[in-house]
Structures are given as structure tokens and as C-alpha cells.
Amino acid sequence: MNEDPDVNEAEEAKLDAIVRHGPSGAIALAGISTAIVIGMWFIFYFAVFLPRGVIQ
Q1: Residue 3 maps to a domain
Q2: Is 26 helix (H, G, I), strand (E, B) or coil?
Q3: For this UniProt entry, which segments traverse the membrane (predicted)?
Q4: Which residues contact 2 (CB under 8 A, 6 or more apart)?
Q5: Owning domain of residue 35
Q6: Could you tell me if residue 35 is inside a domain?
Q7: Residue 2 lies in a domain
């Protein structure tokens, strides 16, 4: 394990810079995934439910 304080401070500074930017990639992935699921739901709705007509 590296016990050099200068190296530890440099690593912590790099980590702080990364964390400061936030989880933008994860949020983008979640947004894209949600859009795909909603799009698939609309395709299923318009392709399956509407052609069958009103259920009585």
C-alpha cells in the first residue's frame, strides 16, 4: 500500500473531480432505456390493442 501523502492527496483530488461531475452516464442510460420501453409499449398498443377493437 502506498503511504505517500502527496500521492494520496492527488488521488483524492482526481476522485473528487470525478464525483463532482455526477452520474451523467447512468442518468443518460436510464433515460434511453425508459424511452425504449415506452416506445415499445406504444408500438404494442397501436399494433395489437387498437386493431382488435373495443372489448365488450
Answers
A1: no
A2: helix
A3: 26-50
A4: 8
A5: 23-56
A6: yes
A7: no
